[in-house]
Every structure is written in C-alpha cells, then in structure tokens.
Queue: 2 jobs
Job 1
Amino acid sequence: MANNIFKVQGMHCASCASVITKKISKIPGVFNVSVNYGNEKARIDFDPKQATPALFNDVVKELGYTLTSENMSSEKMEDAHDHMGKENYLEELESKVAFIFPVSIVIFIAMMWDIAARTFAWIPNLPIPMELFNLISMIVATLAVFWVGQPYLAGVLRFVKYGTANMDTLIGIGTLTAYLYSTVITLLPQVRILIQAPEYTYFDVAIVVIGFVTLGKYLEVRSKKKTGDAIEKLLHLQAKNALVVRDGKEVEIAITEVVHDDVIIVKPGARIPVDGIIVEGSSFLDESMITGEPMPIEKHAGDAVVAGTLNTSGAFTFKATKVGKETLLSQIIAMVDEAQGSKAPIEALADKISSVFVPVVLVIAVLSLVVWLTIGASYLGFSQALSLGILSFVSILVIACPCALGLATPTAIIVGVGKGAQAGILIKDASTLEKLHKVNTVIVDKTGTITKGKPTLVDIKNDSGRSDDEFISLLASLEKSSEHPIAHAVVQYAERKNISMQEVAEFSIVEGKGLRGKIGGTEYFVGNVKFINELSVSFDESSIEKYTSQGKTPLIIATKEKVLGFATVSDELKEASKEAIANLHKLGIKVIMLTGDDERTAKYIASLVGIDEVVAHVLPQDKLAKVKELQERGHIVAMAGDGVNDAPALAQADVGIAMGTGTDVAIESAGITLLGGDISKIAKAISLSKMTMLGIKQNLFWAFFYNAIGIPLAAGVFYPVFGWLLNPIFAGLAMAGSSVSVVSNSLRIKAKKL
Ligand code: ADP
Ligand code: MG
C-alpha cells in the first residue's frame, strides 16, 4: 500500500476539500483520503497497482484543482513553486480588491441613500436618473461577476458539469441570479412589464456581495499565511553552506553535499550546518531556536552540536554525524509540517457538517423561492413576491456559505503546533494536541525526567575483604556492559581512578533490578535490594537506609554466598523540576512519580520537588500496568519519560511525552517531545492545548452562529411578522466577517503567553 502526501492547488474554500475527498475516494484502489484545507495538502493511501498519482491529478483537474506528489519531485523546487503560487494568488486578489472594494463602498452608500430616500420623505432621491444608475451598475456588475467573481462562476460551472457543489458554487449561483435578473429587467423592458417586476435592479447586490466576499478572502489568505509562518522560521534556520575540510583544504560547499564524518569548521557567529560532535575548540552556542532555552551553552570537544543553532564568539571544528534529512532540524520541520496538516478529532464534526451543508442550503434556497412565489405571491402579488423571493434566494446562498466552519479547526491547529515548536514542544499530531487539554494526571519517571539522569558514584561500602580498588574493579567490570545511567556512573568513576577492568562472561541484564555476570568462574550479582533479596544471602537492609533517605541509589554486589558490599550513586535534580511540578499543580493536575528505584530514595526526591504520590520498585512492564489502572479509574493520563525503557507506558498513556535531550531525539516515539528535556514544558504544553481548544471552540461557535441566525432571517421567516428580510449585501458582509474573525481569533493564540 502506498501512502502519499500531495500538494493541492486551487482550493479556495473548505468545502473544496470535501469535494476532492469524495471524488478521490471513489477511485478503485484508494483506501483512505484526507484533504486539509488549512495547509493545502492531501494524504492518500492507495494500492499502487490499481491507482496512480497521475490518475488522481486527472480526476481533480476536471474540477479545477491540481495535485502534485510531494515524494515525486524535488522538494525545493516545489516549495519555491508553491510559494510563488501563493504569492501570485495573493497579488491577484489584491488587484481585484483594489478595484471592487472602493466601488462596493460607493454602491453601498448609494443603496443606503436610496433606502433612506424611500423611507423618509425629507431625504431627496439620488441625484442621478434611475436608467443611468442602472447602466453604470450593470457595467460594474459585469466586471464584478466575470472578472472578480471568476472563481465563483467556476464553482457554478462545476456544479452544472459535474454536480459537485462547494462554497464557491453558493456565492456563484447567488450573485449570478441577482445579475441575470437585473440584466433582464434593464435590457428587456418588455419582459419586465410582462412579469410586472419593479424597475429597480440587484446589480448592487452582485457587486457588493462579490466585493465583501473577495475582501474577506483576501484578508483570510493573508492571515492564513501568517498562521503557518512557524515552518518558514524553521526553514530560515537552515544554513545554506558549510565550510569543510576536504583533502586538507578548507572549502565551502552546499549543505546538501555534506556527508557523514566530514570535518566542518565553524567560525564565530556562524550557523551550525548539520548535526555532529565537536572535535576541537570550544564555544558558547545559542540553542534557543531549537530548545527554547535562552542562555547560550558552553560546548567542548566531545559535545554534540545541532544544525540550525548559532555559534557565538568561539571557533571550533566538528565531525558531521547526521546530515540532510537526518538532522534534528529537518526532523522537526517534517514533523511540524505533518502535525499542522493532521486533523483533530473535533474537526470531523465540522467536516461532516460542511459536506452536507452545501447541498442542503441549495435545497433550502430553492424551497424558499418556491414558497415566496406561491404563498408569498398570494399575499403580496406576483411581482413583489418575485423580487423579494430572489432577494431572499440570494441571501440564503450567501450567508449559508460555511467557509468559516472549514477554517475554524485547521487554522487554530496550525498556530498551536507552530507556537509549540517555537517553544521546544514538538507535537506529533492534532489529536495529541486535542487530547492534552483533558489531562488531569501526569506520571513522571524519576531518572532523566525529574533528575538529570547523569548520576555520579558517591559512596563505597566495601565488605568484601579485598582492597577498595579491587572492589571497584569488580563492580565496574560488571557494569561496563550495561547502558543504564547507574552503570555509566560506576564506569566513569573507575576510569577516573585508572582502575583496570576484568573479563566478564555470561553477562545478562535483569530488567528493572540489576545484572549478573561471571568473573574468573565466580558468578556475581549487582542490583537493588529487591534483586539481592531474591538470592538466598543475608543482607541487612538497615545498612543502606542512611543513604536512601538522602535520595541516593544503592547498588549492592553479591555472590551466591554473600553480600560483598555496596556503592551508592546520586543524581542531581533538574533545576526546573520543582517549579514545573508547582505549575502542574496550578493547573489542577496530580503528579505521580514512577520509578524502578528504591522506595526511600524515591520518596526523598519526591519530597524535594513536591510530587503527590510515589510508586517505587516498579518494573518497566508494571509502569504500563499502573498507567492502565489509573485510566480505568477515570484519569486522563499523560506520561513523561526518557523514552527508552518507558516506551510501553508512553504508548499506553493518553498522551506520551518524551524527554528529547540533545541530539538523541526519537521524535516518532511519543505524542509530544520536549526538547532539551525541560519538564517545565509539560505545563506549558497543557496550557497550549487548552488555548488551542478554546480557540477552536470559539471559532466553531462564531462560524455556526452566523449561519444559524442568518439562514432563517435570509429566508424571510420573520418577514410576515416583523417585516424583516436580510439584504444579501449584509449577508455578504456577515459571511466575510465570519471568516476573517475566525482566522484572526486563531492568530490571537500566537500572541498569548505560555
Ligand atoms: P529507573 O528508570 O526508574 O531507574 P530502571 O528499571 O531502569 O528504573 O531501574 C530500576 C532499578 O534497578 C534501579 O534503580 C537500580 O536500583 C536497579 N538497576 C538497574 N540497572 C542497574 C545496573 N546496571 N546496575 C545496578 N543496578 C541497576
Ligand atoms: Mg529510566
């Protein structure tokens, strides 16, 4: 099965997305289609034996759109092309607005004057004769309908040819009706007299509706560009060239030509072109654009550097370890792009509504015209019923246009995901962002989440009868093959003391407890109390209490016969931990710490940072069970872990939050990745989700609100009682206003403080 992301060009409103979805899903071999109006992309899962991208393009071309595969052509060319396409579209809209908007204002004033003159006797009539006014209006309206309103006409044409209707169709049918009716009245006076229609025309309606809708569209496209500028900012972080050493000489090459193990020279003030490890020199690096940390960080030989970050005043060389699409920056860009285009569950509702809305509205509009011409005519007479009926037909089509509905969710998601990325909070998809706002329980892992995860060896209690060096050598040799942070602490200590290591046979890890291995024929065990208690050796637990109650982790070494002693390691708290927990409490969230460590050790650490509940001595599989248990009790759980042994629990949690430290970021593994491993970002991510969801709900309210009160008003439901009938001009104003207010409301999320 192939899965492809396509760029879609030519979508002018949200219902285009549902039209395209319907058409493509009918093609044999297509399993799943999702078209997003927000970022103008389509995701199509299909069987390449039965369907091809070219076929998809042929199908949508008939409807006036183009599909280009993202995987097929060179990305850069396409980005440039896409960018130009958008610019041209905006320029075209700009010139249309420059013409139609002033004209609309003049017509609007003339119309208001006319209404006022007919209502109040003391206001004089318009100082131009009706025939002349109609003639000028007709010329302007012709331009409005056939030039400015061309996309709406195309919508009508599509409806006639293929039976697919979208929002453009509604505006198109509405304005074309007003235009044709008025043209007949003006040019064919015989017909006008025959149907006894009044002398006034609706050219003004066609002009002003197209004027307002086009202005709304222009403002919408302009702000929509702004909603997506997080990606643009990230792209700007990418250096274009790199200074590398090739054959002993410094050469400047394009970053696309940098390969693994290239040695790259970084001068003061330069941007880091790819990911790598410093080999020589040192400097302070500004990593704020990636991690959100404002302070420059000092880096020396052996430290990792990340593409897109900025060197300050030092100079150094580094070896490229990740190039091209592998760099953290490329991964971030790809993920933000994907996440912004993904659909939040809440959007399914809006999609469903807009897909049935358009045909339903067409039916309502026709029904309303029929009612006017039958029931209305029996009260008002045919000629007045006809002219009011046409007015209400046009109004319904214009006000019912669910444009704002289609913009409500995607624009907020795009802003929310982008804002997160700029704060070092990487969100995998829209549904994660949506789920996050409901979280009421956060589970954190101790090592690497609350603490730095870089423990050091602090105490040695040697009861083995050997020298301390021999004791350490034993311990370090056994730990050498383990990847656990505790093991690193021991090995590092031994290396610093220049203690030699020994050969270990039959080594094995005992998950969550420790390890075992043979040295010189004797089997040794290293691990926690639980592990040692499983051996039948006697161990006085009270001997370690002094250490565990200070938050230190003991590692006990024993043979099958007896305990040889223990060492302790201590892991520093992250500076941000305490405040981060306090911020979660402020959001009303319960914080539970799960750890495989000793209970006293864990409780001590928990008390330092204000964690509500501790579960110690848990094995990785028990972490998963604990998450499940909380979920069964009705908690909505976010689990934050360092992403290695916590993976199953991260996956089980409603939202998995991975601590992405340095360059080792497995972005795909969790719903959310916090760059720099800063846990104060958990509360920020939850606030961001709350803001975004609130924004979406407000947007949906405004989008529905206009339509809900607009349609009955436009249909003339209130006419018999109050004499209210919505003029199509106000319908156009309301419709444009609703789209613009939805997009600006989404943009507001950007300015809010996290
Ligand atoms: P956590 O991530 O909370 O530390 P783990 O499952 O990784 O949980 O480890 C649980 C406990 O098992 C550790 O606290 C430690 O006591 C013991 N342990 C794990 N690996 C080792 C090791 N290599 N050497 C000694 N003890 C270990
Ligand atoms: Mg761990």
Note: The pocket of magnesium ion (ligand 2) is lined by residues 445, 447-448, 642, 645 (CB under 6 Å).
Job 2
Amino acid sequence: MSLLPILRFPDPRLKRVAARVESIDDKLRRLARDMAETMYEAPGIGLAATQVNEHVQLIVIDASETRDQLLTLINPVILEQDGLQVCEEGCLSVPGIYDKVARAERVVVAYLDLEGAERTVDAVGLLAVCLQHEIDHLQGQVFVEHLSQLKQQRIRSKLAKQARITA
Ligand code: K2U
Ligand code: ZN
C-alpha cells in the first residue's frame, strides 16, 4: 500500500469532474486501499479520488470514533436530502482553513461497494456532512467555494503566502 500526494487548493485539477466507474478491477481496488491509508494517515475522515488526482467517482470515509468503520463508495448519488445543519469544515486539500458551511442534515446516498453490490446509506450529522463534502469533490467543488467571494480571496492570498514561505 502507498500514501498518495494530496492536491492543494487552488490546483485546477481539483475542479475536474470525476468520471463514473465502469469496471471494478484490481487497479480500482488498489486505489481505494491507498486512499484509505492516505486518509487514516492524514488524518482525515474522508477522501475523494479527485484529491489524489484520480478523476473517478470513488470516495472513502471513516467518521467513526473508533476509526475502524471504513466506507468505500463507488459512483455515489444523493437520492434524498432534508433538513439543514451548519458545520465547521476543513479539507485535506485546504490545510489550515476552517469555516462554517450549511448542508443538509440528512442524506440518503446510493452507491456500489468494492464487490459491485448496490447499497444505500442513510446518514445524519457528521457522516452526512462528510458524504456531501466528498461528493462535492467528485463534482470539482471544494468547500471554500461555498463561502463568500471575499473569504475565498483571503484564503487564496493566505495559501499563496504559505506556498511562498515553504517554497
Ligand atoms: O479533505 C477531505 O475531503 C476530508 C475532510 C472531510 C470532512 C470535511 C468536513 C467535515 C467532515 C469531513 C476533512 O479534512 S477530514 C478532517 C476533519 C475531521 C473532522 C471534522 C472536520 C475535518
Ligand atoms: Zn475536502
């Protein structure tokens, strides 16, 4: 297994829309394993293939306290969403930036698991937030793009300054 490099906002590759998975093969299973390892090591509670520059509809999530309930979702689709919650979000592609984002309180997501079986997950709270956050990534959207233009400009300036310092 390998740790994968994570793209950093505002890398334009984070705006690419991921393609549907047509075949669940060893290459995809290897990618899913490497994404899970990368997520646990970051540490994070979710990771989308887009973030590791693999533009396929694949996400891994583990929002459990015990960090032993890995969800691997292929071709995820939100079937239902209701309610509203505002949650402080971060992103492994936008290190050091946290802000509140309004999202649905509950989502029902249909997806394929690694065996190709059709499944659904009915989620509320942090898991619902994470599912929406990761599905956004597959559509080329980073959470900061839900914020005001002024906040986005300030974030871009801060990240550009960080990049100059660490270059
Ligand atoms: O970058 C990512 O996509 C992983 C995200 C997933 C996430 C963001 C906001 C809210 C829930 C999940 C995070 O970086 S994982 C780190 C984290 C953990 C708990 C709460 C917020 C952020
Ligand atoms: Zn993210």
Note: The domain at 12-166 is CATH 3.90.45.10 (Peptide Deformylase).
